[in-house]
Every structure is written in C-alpha cells, then in structure tokens.
C-alpha cells in the first residue's frame, strides 16, 4: 500500500536531494572564486525575482489539480492567463531594477535584475504543463525534468565560474534551469495549449489562487526578510554569509519536506471529507519528517564549523555559526510544514492566508529587532521564534481537524531525543578532533542516528506510509 507514495515522493525527493547535494559539492569550487559580497548581491537581486515567480503560477496549477475532471477549455484559459501575467512580471522587474539598485547602493544590482527578468515568464508558461503531469501522476517524469535542468545549470555555473565570469555564473545557472524546465515540460506534458479564444470563466480558480498568492507572497516575505534586512543594515557580505548558511539549511526542505508536501497534498485532498483521517495523515507526515530532518540537521549543526571549514574554507566560518544557531528552528518548521497543504486540501485557503500573515508579521518584527545586534542574533532569533510559535501554529490545524497537539509532540519525541544525544556527542568530538576527522565523524553519525530513531518505530513508520498511500 505504501508503494505509490514511496515511488512518487521518492522520485521527487531523490531528484531534489541529488540536485541539492550536487550544488553543495560544487560550493567548494564556487566559494573559492566568488566572495560573500557577490553571493549577497545575487541574493538581494533574487529577492525580487522570487516574489515575481510566486505570482507567475499564482497557485492556479494546484487549483486545476483539485478538479475531479479535466476540462480542456478551462486548462487552456488558465495557460493564457498565466502567459499574460508572466509577460507583465518580466516588465515589472525591468522597471523595479533601477530603484532596487539605488536603495541598496549597489549599482550592479540593476544589471543583474535585467538579466534575470525573463524568469517569471518561463515559470508562468510551464505551470499548466507541469500541473497536468502531476494531475496524471507523472511525478517521476517531473523529477527527471528537474534533475536534468538542475545538472545543466550546475555545469554552466561551474564552467562560467572557473572561466572568471563572477556573479554572472550564478545568473546563468538560474536562467539555464528555468528555460530547460519550461521547454521540456511543455514537450512532455499531455496538455497542449489551444488558441487564446473562448475563455472559460475562472472565478473559482481565481479565488483559490488569490488566497494562495497571498500566502505565498507573505510566506516568502517571511523567508526573504532576513536577507533584505541584513543586506540593508549590515551589508552585502553578511547577507552572503546568511545565504550560504541557508543553502545548507534548505537541503532538507528541497529534498524531503517539499516532495512529501507535494505528494501528501494529493492524498489529503482525497481525504478532505474525513477530518479525523486528515489529522492522522498530518501527524504521520510530522513523524516521518522529524526522523528524516531532525537527525542530519542536528548533527551538521553540532559540527558546523569544522564541516564548513573543510567544504568551503575558513573564509565562510561566519556562515557556519549562522547554520548552528538557526538549524533547530528550521528543523521544527520543516517537520510541521505539511499543515499548509492540509488547509489547501480542505479549501481553507483563507484560514491559511491569515495564519501565514500572523506568523510572518511576528517573525519579521523579531528579526528586525535582532538584526540591530548582528548576524548571529538573527539566526538565534529564528530558532527561538520557531519554538515559541509552534503551539500557535498547530492550533490552526485544530480548527479544521480533531488534532491533538500532544499527538504531534509524541510523534516527534524519539527523533528529537536521538538527534539531541547525537548532536551533543558530535559537538564534544569537535573540540577534540581535526576538521577532516569531524567531517568523517558526521558522515558516520548521521546514518547511525537515523537507524536509532527509525528502528524502534518501524511498525509506526509502515502504518504512516500506508496512510499516505491510501
């Protein structure tokens, strides 16, 4: 019964993990050619692009997936609507670029943004073809497209970096990935756009999309606010350190929690009339994610400085400190992250919107205060906020399901204990062994601790996978 879930989530997870690990393996090369300030400039420029990319899809693809039947005129109307939105967003970036550059007093930002401007257009025209592939259960093919696009982007990054193109190598990587994905998805999908005529009314889709756009924009503001605040108040180099730490912190987001959420959404949508079952499914995802996410993040955080010294060089030690302080908070957020798709599945997008607004405003306020005290204070604040806000976060699930918070905490208890003990041992070892020895110790500690957290719960894990597979 767990086969379909494992195949779909596994395909997406392996793809994202492969790409994430590949990028990490490339970082020792890239980090020796590019400095923190160049990474910071790219991060500040990408803040604008990321927001436009959210609008380029607008959640309309997910709204189409929710429909019980495929109505071709409806899908065609959404495609042309998004194509128009993508063009408008491209020109919006071109107009914003001079002011963005002036605000940060970084002249190079204007050229970077102009080069990145086509990205929302390519994202827009690929949204419906990809949605059709997901609707047809073609998750392995979606994973293959993303893998190949990512590999080609990585090859471009390394080649241009070594050739001395500087920050433009990062720009080229982004463009290669988005163009390859859009072209291949368009060819591979069963969806074929017709002529832009006889548009179908999209009122229900627009309502769904408007709530989801609000959620996505605000949630992204929550994630991008530290980069913007650090860049504006502390400078491009500290922003570069923060972004580098987040490249590692986001590995489990891309490789694990993202794919799990993507596949769990389809299952939760099918369970939307059985709210007790939905609560069980959400707890199952929290349990599985806590095992897979807590362990590696805890061990890598405990050995962050020696690991970063080996992988990137001691130039990036400040990024290791950020990773160490922020990792616990990121782990908690990822383990509970499928609440968002649960609310989508039961068509509670407005509740999800208000939840994200509240969380974002509080988190940005906390970070805005912390940035006055330096980069490390921002990272620590992210963890303290995640811990303090979790009970409130879970209360939103209780509004639509008979969820008990104690069940969520109980599901995550053993992974938390195993991770904490392993982290303490690795931290002690970091004071007695060399950097290279610590890299080996961390590599051994992760699978051993994963086994310690999973083996006593094999029966529960099988049950969770069966629940997610239907």
> With helices defined by DSSP (H or I, 4 residues minimum), what is the helix count?
20
* Radius of gyration of CA atoms, rounded to a whole number: 22 Å
Q: Can you give the mean pLDDT?
A: 84
**Pattern of helices and strands:** HHHHHHHHHHHHHHHHHHHH
Proportion of strand residues = under 5%
Low-confidence stretches: none
- Major beta sheet summary: none
Which helices and strands occur, and which strands form pairs?
Blueprint (H helix, E strand, L loop, with lengths): L2 H31 L2 H22 L2 H7 L5 H33 L3 H9 L2 H17 L3 H24 L5 H21 L14 H31 L2 H14 L1 H20 L4 H28 L1 H8 L5 H19 L3 H7 L3 H22 L4 H24 L6 H26 L4 H20 L3 H12 L1
Helix pairs in contact: 1-7, 1-11, 1-20, 2-4, 2-5, 2-6, 2-9, 2-10, 3-6, 3-9, 4-5, 4-6, 6-8, 7-8, 9-10, 9-16, 10-14, 11-12, 11-15, 12-14, 12-18, 12-19, 12-20, 13-14, 13-19, 14-17, 16-17, 18-19
